[in-house]
Design a protein that fits this description.
The chain contains 14 helices and 6 strands. The chain has helices spanning 2-28, 46-53, 60-69, 89-98, 114-122, 129-136, 139-144, 169-183, 186-194, 199-212, 219-231, 239-250, 288-295, 321-337; strands at residues 36-40, 79-83, 103-108, 159-164, 304-307, 315-318. The strands form 3 sheets. Strands 1-2 form a two-stranded antiparallel ribbon. It has a two-stranded antiparallel ribbon with strand order 3-4. It has a two-stranded antiparallel sheet with strand order 5-6.
Length: 342
């Protein structure tokens, strides 16, 4: 009888040991097969989470079981999570439950319309482009910050910023406004005041400088030229503003490789040939080098500029109209030889 009891007890202990081993393995055995970043969207269901993490797991079912035991399906937190090869289900679920997500670098530059900016940001965070555009154009946000649809692009200073991937469109927008205000430190404000320009006017002029030359070293010279014209109440006569006006009239995809004399007659507040002073708002997204070029312009006596035909990508600067006309004639002949008519 004792032998029978011992055998039964042995069997019970063996079965119990097997069960413990099975559950221990489910919970604590390595299940993540590679280092990876998993992106859990806002409002994701547990089934969606399973689909997202499955490619990185040895056994999806064991993860599912541990997640259920730890009530994870009811406490899903969105974000970007860095998982490591060899991680067990217990640690993986704890990480996803914790909300301790990794940050990402959000970068943008040369996004010349709000639509392009929204699309660029949507490629990097969870919010979609419509949500981002809607947040930027929110009437309460614009009114509160003395902004409008035409100039709100100016608060976005091109750079690289740390965000959480699940940042909402509104939080992204508000963060960018804070970064813009931080960008305008006391030194930049003092320089703008010395030029008798507001922050928005500096951004507007910087956008023209940005579009006028891609050569960073040349931007302070271009900025100085336009400031000379503003100081002496000359029309800026900036071709990039004409191109902007043409795109406003014909659509963003309208291609302008050459500004024609007829274009200079376009009826638009952005036509700086017909209207004196700065245009109503920026015409592009200026980067920091263009903004600082306006704030730190090169002092000179130039009033005219023309694209160079001997040093492509650069400009020929002139103090007098006669000098400029000589440069312009060379450029027009060169453009015609290239067959560029529009």
């Amino acid at each position: 009888m004792k032998k029978i009891i011992l055998v039964i007890l042995s069997i019970i202990f063996l079965i119990g040991g097997i069960i413990v081993y099975i559950y221990y393995t489910k919970i604590f055995s390595a299940n993540v097969v590679e280092n990876a970043a998993v992106l859990i969207p806002n409002n994701a269901t547990f089934d969606e989470v399973l689909e997202i993490v499955q490619p990185h797991l040895k056994n999806k079912n064991s993860f599912d079981w541990v997640a259920q035991q730890k009530n994870y399906p009811n406490v899903i937190k969105s974000g970007k999570y860095l998982i490591k090869k060899g991680m067990n289900n217990n640690d993986l679920v704890n990480l996803l439950r914790s909300g301790k997500q990794a940050t990402i670098k959000v970068t943008f530059n040369n996004q010349d319309t709000l639509e392009k900016l929204s699309g660029r940001i949507a490629e990097q965070i969870d919010a979609d482009s419509i949500e981002i555009l809607t947040a930027i154009l929110d009437s309460n946000f614009l009114q509160k910050n003395n902004l409008n649809r035409n100039n709100v692009l100016g608060i976005f200073v091109p750079n690289s910023y740390e965000f959480y991937w699940n940042t909402s469109a509104e939080k992204f927008r508000d963060r960018m406004l804070r970064e813009y205000n931080n960008f305008w430190n006391s030194s930049r404000k003092e320089k703008a005041n010395a030029l008798q320009l507001s922050k928005k006017e500096v951004i507007t002029l910087a956008s023209i400088v940005q579009k006028e030359t891609a050569k960073v070293s040349e931007r302070p010279t271009v900025a100085g030229l336009y400031l000379n014209r503003l100081k002496d109440n000359w029309a800026l006569q900036a071709d990039p503003t004409i191109i902007y006006a043409l795109k406003q009239k014909h659509g963003e995809d309208y291609e302008v490789k050459r500004v024609l004399n007829g274009d200079l007659k376009i009826d638009s507040p952005y036509n700086t040939y017909k209207n004196s002073g700065l245009p109503p708002s920026l015409i592009a997204m200026p980067d920091i080098t263009s903004i600082d070029a306006v704030l730190n312009p090169k002092n000179h006596e130039y009033y005219y500029m023309c694209a160079s035909v001997t040093n492509l990508g650069s400009h020929e600067f002139a103090k007098t109209l006669s000098q400029h006309n000589q440069n312009a004639t060379k450029y027009q002949r060169w453009v015609s030889k290239q067959g560029i008519n529009r």
